[in-house]
């Protein structure tokens, strides 16, 4: 069948044409495309020509893939935003694939194009299930799939080929009768200003400071499940795990930074987030202790949790003998509600914990 042309008035999906060759070449030479897709390396002009004039039309002719160009007005005056496809897997199933031109990222062009594609696939082609796959770590692809309503069904270990190696892959599905909108909350770490501190997302530049803090004997003692020795690889894994919690709506993490030089002073997280409550956890770099940094961060995050997430209760749990951590909770106005025996692991074994919480109506008038 001929490639149809579909539009929402701004974004159009259509057959690839000779005018798209330059855009295809630029996209396939882009480092992000090379990292997360299987574009051939090296990739030259003739490869772009072959894709536009041979590979895409042949896929339409044999029914293996329905490949479209995403046509969208871009800031530089060009219109090639990338290409998208449904790969027919038979029995009413198709795999979705997409790659964006660098100039189109963040413009909404790919989401608009994919919505047109999904509507056509479910409607005209009678597809019942669309499968999405991406290498673990490709957060841009995962977030776009999330916005389209895909549910991440799990991780397939060493199931996807990437540059000659087998890597873990996320897999998700969207059914024909499901809404094309997010089914879960995706949390972020917005920049928040506190008393003498600035809370911002944690990044790779923070890794040396994270390693220093998490290698400190005091941190190691009270956070007994923390790896020892603690390495840069562990820090990167911790950042990745925080991003996973964001993507599932279960939590998020901030770097507590010096507002003058942006140096990491501490870290604070919310986790076990549901519709009603969350828990806060924190640690401080040794050179930031005793300066009120963590207290300011806890107050800032608690206020944000009530105001922005609409929670009813915020909790803190600390080992009963961890005087510094308990002091932070009490100084912030959290109420000690009890203890739980042997509920946490410190470096020397299991330990009792003190339970603290504060309710939303109490927070403005806390002592």
Describe it for me?
By secondary structure, the protein is α+β, with helices and mostly antiparallel strands. It has 2 domains: 6-175, Gcn5-related N-acetyltransferase (GNAT) (Aminopeptidase, 3-Layer(aba) Sandwich), CATH 3.40.630; 192-365, Aminopeptidase. 31% of the residues lie in helices and 32% in strands. It is built from 10 helices and 16 strands. The protein has helices at residues 21-29, 31-36, 45-62, 109-123, 139-147, 207-215, 217-222, 232-247, 293-309, 323-331; strands at residues 6-7, 12-14, 65-71, 80-90, 93-100, 129-135, 151-162, 165-175, 192-193, 198-200, 252-257, 264-271, 277-284, 313-319, 335-346, 349-359. An 8-stranded mixed beta sheet has the order 1-2-3-4-5-6-8-7, with helices on both faces. An 8-stranded mixed beta sheet has the order 9-10-11-12-13-14-16-15, sandwiched between helices. The longest helix has 18 residues, at 45-62. The radius of gyration is 25 Å and the shape is elongated.
